[in-house]
């Protein structure tokens, strides 16, 4: 059965939840990397400043981590293997402090995300929606529903005893259903403007609906993909990009009609993201930038295999700042990771932290590697000694 990005004897029973296939290929281009457009400077000299520790998990390993300016939220395996503990540790006055045990296996696919006043805990099969302030369950997805969270909405698919399926779009914070229509979805993306809902059905067929009332606006097979039954698709702004073995086809999100006269030539694309006024396609053989309006190639850079907000990286973790208009390297940042306006560089057995825009050195993280670190404001969370630790970055350091 086909699947995508990140559902039998008469009368047939409702399909078991295990039929829901994992979100594997549908990529959502995030606009949240805009802060990285103000980029800066080269490698900074080592400094001796060690940041103050704010919180940690006591060495307890986490399968998922969410850092906000108010709290560190982590998910840990509980005894028995079929449950997890979700723990919120306050990082600011009035920040949430709670612990909640959920009947969810500790899979590597587990994710924590925040939307408004709720915390979403989901994996490939299950979605749980908690009050971010208290950890209590805000509302429950029905046992016969499969759920796909997209933006501030959740798309529910339910099968009846005869095998017929129904789609319902609900508000993520309250569970209030906005509309219901016949249909099913194994992947879904709500467009940036909130007007269109893009979905993939079990056979890989693409559909777009009005997000307001669920009306079907367009439908087509994605024969341009490597495997039409299991298409590889990215949604960026008002475009749907179908990734083929050596090309990319662009469709208008509003009705799924072709947006370019012919596909763009892109070798082995693996995703899509905004690249200034262009759209960039990272791939197995490098980074290609094309004109979003025409599909014409503007530049290509075989060295880089990942890109976000002006920062490109190679397979060996070398990181650079790129001019998105030309692909020219503005500054080489060394081996490491860029996150939250910070550049984290490996230096022996520790990590040097500097400002991504100015290159100003802030300090070091002894015994820490930068991979897996995430930032929120002046806070930085990284794996350390089997657990997760949060430091406060002192931006007055020099």
TrEMBL record:
Gene3D superfamilies in the record: YVTN repeat-like/Quinoprotein amine dehydrogenase
Organism superkingdom: Bacteria
Residue intervals of the Pyrrolo-quinoline quinone repeat domain: 93-221
Pfam families: PQQ_2
Listed InterPro entries: PQQ_rpt_dom, Quinoprotein_ADH-like_sf, WD40/YVTN_repeat-like_dom_sf
Protein name listed in UniProt: Putative pyrroloquinoline-quinone binding quinoprotein
């Amino acid at each position: 059965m086909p699947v995508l990005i990140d559902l039998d004897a008469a009368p047939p029973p409702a399909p078991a939840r295990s039929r829901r296939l994992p979100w594997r290929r549908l990529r959502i281009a995030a606009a949240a990397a805009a802060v990285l457009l103000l980029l800066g400077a080269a490698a900074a000299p080592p400094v001796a400043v060690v940041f103050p520790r704010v919180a940690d998990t006591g060495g307890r390993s986490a399968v998922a981590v969410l850092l906000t300016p108010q709290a560190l939220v982590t998910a840990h395996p509980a005894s028995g293997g079929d449950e997890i503990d979700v723990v919120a540790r306050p990082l600011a006055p009035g920040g949430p402090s709670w612990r909640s045990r959920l009947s969810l296996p500790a899979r590597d696919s587990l994710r924590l995300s925040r939307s408004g006043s709720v915390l979403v805990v989901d994996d490939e099969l299950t979605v749980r929606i908690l009050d971010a302030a208290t950890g209590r369950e805000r509302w429950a997805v029905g046992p016969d529903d499969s759920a796909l969270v997209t933006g501030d909405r959740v798309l529910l698919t339910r099968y009846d005893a005869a095998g017929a399926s129904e789609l319902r779009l609900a508000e993520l914070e309250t569970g209030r259903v906005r509309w219901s229509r016949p249909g099913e979805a194994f992947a879904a993306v709500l467009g940036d403007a909130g007007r269109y809902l893009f979905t993939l059905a079990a056979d890989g067929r693409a559909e777009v609906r009005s997000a307001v009332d669920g009306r079907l606006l367009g439908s087509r097979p994605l024969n341009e993909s490597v495997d039409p039954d299991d298409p590889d698709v990215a949604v960026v702004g008002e475009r749907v990009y179908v990734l083929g073995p050596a090309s990319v086809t662009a469709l208008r999100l509003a009705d799924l009609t072709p947006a370019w006269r012919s596909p763009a030539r892109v070798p082995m694309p693996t995703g899509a993201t905004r690249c200034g006024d262009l759209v960039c396609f990272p791939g197995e053989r490098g980074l290609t930038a094309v004109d979003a309006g025409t599909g014409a190639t503007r530049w290509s850079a075989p060295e880089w295999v990942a890109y976000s907000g002006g920062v490109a990286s190679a397979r060996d973790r070398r990181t650079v700042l790129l001019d998105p208009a030309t692909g020219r390297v503005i500054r080489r940042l060394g081996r490491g990771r860029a996150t939250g306006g910070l550049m984290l560089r490996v230096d022996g057995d520790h990590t040097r932290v500097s400002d991504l825009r100015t290159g100003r050195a802030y300090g070091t993280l002894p015994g820490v590697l930068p991979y897996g670190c995430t930032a929120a404001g002046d806070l930085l969370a990284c794996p350390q000694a089997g657990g997760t630790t949060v430091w406060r970055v002192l931006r007055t350091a020099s």
